Amino acid sequence: MTLDVAAGTQLRFSEYLTDLTSVPESGASLIETWFPSRELSQLIAKDRRVRDPAYAAHRWWARRPPALLRALLLATALPPGISEQEFWSRYASEDHHLAGLTVYDPFMGGGSTLVEAQRLGASVMGSDVDPMSVRIVQSELTPVDGKRLRAYGDLLLRHLRSKLSWLYPTDSDAQPLHYFSIAEVQCPACNEAGPLYRNLVLVRDPKKVGAVVRDHAITVFCPICWTLHHLDTPDRKEIICCGKRSKIMSGTFRAAAYHCPSCGQASTHRELQTGIAKRRVVAVEETQHNGRRRLRMPISSDTTGELKAAREWKMRRKSLPHPEGEIRATRSDERPRSFGITRYEELYTSRQLLVLGHALQWIHQNVHEGEFQRALELAISNSLATNNKLCGYATDYGRLSALFSVRGYSLPVLTVELNPLHETGGRGTIAACIERVAKSDTRQVRRHVWDSQARRPAANVFSFQRAQGSRWVGLKNAASASELEAISKIDVAVFDPPYFDFIAYDELSEFHRAWFGELELAGDPLLPKSEDPVQSFGTQLGKSLTEMVKRARGNKPFVFTYHSANPDAWKAVGVALDKAQLAVTQLWPVRSDGHMGHHSNPGNCEWDVVVVCRPWGGTVRHEFQNDANLWVSEMKPLSVNEADVQNFRFAIQMAQSRFARVL
Fold first, then answer.
1. Looking at the DSSP assignment, which residues form a beta bridge with residue 280?
2. pLDDT (tens digit per residue) in 36-82
3. What would the pLDDT profile of 362-399 be if each residue is shown by its tens digit?
4. How large is the angle between the packed helices 350-366 and 146-164, nearest 10 degrees?
5. Around Cβ 550, how many Cβ atoms within 10 Å?
């Protein structure tokens, strides 16, 4: 595919980039003349399953790939004329290429931009309206000594187990790990109570790599007497129990509704208030001394333990930390209120509240070093996602499914309660979450780099060393557009603003913030207002950009990533750029969300558009010489879905009247 350039000659996109880099532009940055979009997209894909300890301490919902941010920071800071080989050499180097520079992210979220900038030797500043963001990023940028944190963690766990082991009764040869339960709901039509279940399957052993190895192919329950049936044939269609045949893959919940066995009425979770319905424990999964797991029916001590926990919580509630506040009624996502849950405390069982409350109380009373107290609080906060009433179970793998696995409050039909004090296993135990924070001070990170000779990603181990000397960290819980005099001049700004087609992450982070009395944000989140979404979003984003222009020193452009197949989203970006009097000096496509896996669909954007902009002074208007079809062609063999073709087109349309070249 070809395109017409100003002189009338025909150049391929790659040739056009080579031509740009040959033009002497002393005021430009490398990213305004060249950027390895296709190669970086392939590298990001290879990094998809790499776990970087710095980002594993606590969940955040919208992280850009670290590889993308490292590349953007380098290309923004470097001058034009750097060869491709030299760029990738610096990318793979552990040298502090950004030493002496200050990098700012006004929407720091999970902190990926600032972590990568710090690894490149820069001083870093960031702000976010969400106090949970500040907690997480502070931990990432200033991790505590892992060995000392583990020592504190051992003391905490020793205290919890000595005080609360009765919550999870253990026999001589096995320890409870998971409690499986289903809701018992009341039909609003006939008032008959009945169990809500999708099918009879509790666990399966399909012999998948990484799955729990079990003694039986499948374990199911009888919906009449609740007896467990351990089956050795995985393709069994039904069981015979209580004189009746029950189909294994049939249940009372189908097509997103409960179907009453008595009258046939179909009812939704909203109508049933399933979130606050009584629950029946149908099985307990235990770990044996030989390391294998087994499922058993609940026994009397399980039932009495639950009742005792409820009484204990009622007595201790006022003296123990716990989540406070109502779940806002005015929300973009009506869940979990639509399940009947209106207070954050209702998201937890009495057992969970006792363990978490005692843990935070011990931390506050016994850990007097502020950084270690915050680190342990972060570990407890991270454990909330695996210790609440809305956790499910990956039946074929034998793993608990944490809340927010799909970026929202979902209500599993089969819920699983974890034993957070388990000693050897379980995803999301307190011990496991402390270990994740402890590992965040690890300096060796396995990632990929680009092999310029082989033309493919290559595995690499980085040994990031913390910069010494005058580097510093500055974080603010503040709106990005707030005029904070404390924020000094910035050299580089690379960021990822909230998207027009937003997910209200502040509604998700409230789940964590409710435990720390931090339900209030420091300002209004960047969201489109219903009365005029384009102007409201664009004006608010424009204020943030204007503040960055005021604080900028030197001559580096501003760089942000964005995507949307909604034309209004890109119109709003245009409004923001105009308000801040910024010209677009380059656009680049990068595939950054191809990791969405089973959560992806053809309507989701998987490609970001990198927007490079700077004040109009020192630029001259110029025609943008690319189009969406050209990008699609040049990104091969990587695929681009129809939503991203629209994403590209709307981005280019936005840039056409605002495009300029640096003098």
1. 182
2. 999 999 999 999 888 899 999 999 988 899 999 999 999 999 999 99
3. 999 999 999 999 999 999 999 999 999 999 999 999 99
4. 130
5. 12
- For residue 545, the Cα-to-chain-centroid distance in whole angstroms is 25
Say how far apart CA 663 and CA 660 lie, in whole Å.
9
Check: CB of residue 227 under 8 Å from CB of residue 219: no
Contact 239, 223 (CB under 8 A): no
CA distances from 117 to 61, 240, 318, 409 (A): 20, 62, 44, 33
For residue 625, give Cα distances in angstroms to 131, 292, 633, 660, 661: 42, 62, 15, 11, 12
Pairing of strands 492-495, 558-562: parallel
Q: For residue 340, give Cα distances in angstroms to 271, 327, 387, 445.
A: 9, 11, 19, 44
As a three-state string, the secondary structure of 448-483 is EEEECCCCEEEEEEEECCCCCCCCCEEEEECCCCCC
Tokens of 395: 């039946």
Q: Is 441 helix (H, G, I), strand (E, B) or coil?
A: helix
Q: Which of 204, 202, 304 is nearest to 251 (CA)?
A: 202
Query: Which segments within 320-388 are labelled E, that is strand?
Result: none
DSSP state of 519: -
Cβ density class 500-532: b for 16+ within 10 Å, e for less: bebeebbbbbbbbbbbbebbebbbebbbbeeee
Cβ atoms within 10 Å, residue 353:
23
Q: Which long-range contacts (CB under 8 A, 24 or more apart) does 276-279 make?
A: 276/339, 276/340, 276/341, 276/346, 277/183, 277/184, 277/185, 277/186, 277/196, 277/340, 278/183, 278/184, 279/181, 279/182, 279/183, 279/184, 279/415
Give me the residues paired with residue 126 across strands.
Answer: 105, 475
Rounded to whole angstroms, how far apart are CA atoms 528 and 501? Answer: 9
> What's the mean pLDDT when you consider all of the chain?
90
- For the chain, what is the largest distance between any 2 Cα atoms, rounded to a whole number of angstroms? 86
Q: Among 124-138, 388-402, 486-500, where is mean pLDDT lowest? A: 486-500
Q: How many CA atoms lie within 13 A of 251 on its CB side?
A: 23
Q: Is the confidence at residue 109, as pLDDT, over 70?
A: yes
From 73, 75, 60, select the one nearest 113 (Cα to Cα).
Answer: 73
Strands 257-259 and 266-267 turn out to be: antiparallel
Which residues, in sequence order, are bridge partners of residue 394? 399
Task: Retrieve residue 530's tokens.
Answer: 């219903």
Stated pTM of the model = 0.90
Copy the structure tokens of residue 470. 């005058």
Q: What is the DSSP letter of 144?
A: P
